Amino acid sequence: MNTSASFPAHHYDQDVYVIHHDDRTILLVGTAHISQESVDLVRTVIEQEAPDCVCLELDDKRYQALIEQQQWQSLDLKSIIKNKQLSTLLVNLLMASYQKRLGSKLGVTPGAELLMAAQTARRLQIPVSLCDRDVRITLRRAWKSTSFFKKGYLLASLLTGLFDRSEISEEKLRELKQSDVLSGVMAEMAEALPDLKRVLIDERDIFIAEKIKSSPGKRVVAIVGAGHIEGMIASFATSNAHRLTEISRIPPVSKGYAIAGWTIPVLIIGALLTIGLQKGAAVAGENLVFWILANGIPAAIGALIAFAHPLTTLGAFAAAPITSLTPVIGAGYVCA
To answer: Are 222 and 27 a contacting pair, CB within 8 Å?
Structure first.
């Protein structure tokens, strides 16, 4: 076991940064999440340094998914629908799919370096500290902080990346981890999507750094994405503990969205009533039938595609015309 005076016991390349905080020494290991080189570096640092604690850029759910290799079957879709997390799930899946495609080209599973860190720490009986913010909070804060048009831009960018067939290599990943290149990428992201960069990068820099500060032991190895290194080094120079509550909260839905959500249903109902008064109940009834079919048929088709039970399909058809009039509840909520 290394003594505090000899920590770190070895010299590493530019991907390992030594931070002295109070009476503790922290090794920040900057990685690429789809790099075999990062996997090897993580294992080497933990084995050679034998720290008191290994901190990971993971929350509890991502850690369990990584350790247990959870797949689609483990997703609680009923809970996702009821908690209105479908949009954040979509973005998460697009990002994961993009990483998986890149990883397949390099023969590396996304997050392999974090898995290696966890396995190495467990083998050496070193405590593991999960230091990232709950991914659900991160994605929901990111989604809510982004304007409607920026959401479209983001989804389009993710989809473009998903179908991009350009090659990537370990050499390119190594270049991307260089501080000057990363700074340029972060600057571009801050200009194009400032709110998204603030939530996905800046807030997590603060959150992860504060969690590392409170982790056990005086000799710590922290495994984080290379894009967080610069911001985390700055975060170690100041105390941001008072901000943890603020950046762990999901902002409420804006009044504008709430008003718009109720205005449209009121206008639709008002239009049907106006038609009934001006042109008679028969014409209003025809429009009502059109509304029912226009909403019910797509919902039923969606249920059939998902191989739903016949009663669930019928429920989707019946619920869709009603739930389309309220922003509070959807057909999926009823059928779930």
So the answer is: yes
